[in-house]
Write the structure tokens for this entry.
Amino acid sequence: MNASLVFLDESGLLLAPLVRRSWAPRGHTPLLSQSLRYREKVSCIAALSLSPQQRRAGLYFSLRSNANLTTLWLRVFLRDLLCHFRNPVVLVWDRLPVHRARRLQAFFLRRQRVQVVLLPPYAPELNPVETLWAYLKHNPLANLSAPDAPTLAQIARRHARRVQSTPPLLHSFFRSAPLFCA
């Protein structure tokens, strides 16, 4: 099949930092200050794509401060995402209820070149975007204590753009999933 393969997933980043081991001079324990605004967050949508010949990998993402995933946001993201592909597209994603919404079903009925494939239930290890989220949260965003959600979104966007411009790292996310496309 001469189609681009696209994996899509959503995630959220909270203001509370993911605490990892860090370095400090002996006798100077590092301190992480944190604001106590528990309800603030950054919602993220990301898609990892692989060209039909599996040579080019791409990352497309959208971040919003203090917003929940909605069908409208997802439809706009998908519309913009599909503009980047000339070939047919195989869209692979999990079974989140918003993915099966009637509005999205109608959206795909109007686009004949998109084939939607659902991952098995409770199988995040099959989705390479989950590995992307783990990488961002455990590496560049670890021990980060942002003062507010817009600042966290700005920092996360900068690190996602850095990942976007690193093809070997993008390919490693695909290799981490035990799928045929590795």
User: Anything to note?
Assistant: DSSP finds five helices and five strands in the chain. The chain has one domain: 4-13+40-176.
